[in-house]
Amino acid sequence: MTILDTGRRLLARVGVPLLRLSLGLVFVWFGALKVADRTPVGDLVAGTVPWLDRAWFVPALGAFEVVLGLALIVGYRLGWVALLTAAHLAGTFLTLVVQPDVAFQQGNPLLLTTEGEFVAKNLVLATAALVVAASAGRRERDGADRGEADHDRDGRRADARAGLTALNGRR
Length: 171
Known about the structure:
Layout: H1 3-35, H2 42-48, H3 54-74, H4 78-91, H5 94-98, H6 100-103, E1 104-105, E2 108-112, H7 114-120, H8 122-142, H9 158-167
Antiparallel strand pairs: 1-2
């Protein structure tokens, strides 16, 4: 076994859990800033949904983000929580439609403003949430979330095998 193989095995085992924890931490952090009305994006969020009152909507959105983040961290109903997280992040792209003057320089969608970059990075976070959701679905089908053994007959972890298979581009 090469060093690269060992690294792949390690990444297959810890990659998705680290992704889940980091996503959860970011959601708790950003959500708490909204609840405390200390977020730098409060006006951006409020301007994206001007039909809702900023005074209650931004803190409520923050509370929702904290709940999603905590659920990701503790691993509660990961499939559903990760899908809700991805859907929430997809909703942030509404900013590009409702406030193009805030998101783009001179109306050019290739020239993002700071706010536009803030929204565009959510593509990565939404994709991370989808990876967590897909992994949670596989673990639930394999019985890992019911406490059943998650190893094959040779003692290898099933999630590690799946990760290695994905890295090699095979299914």
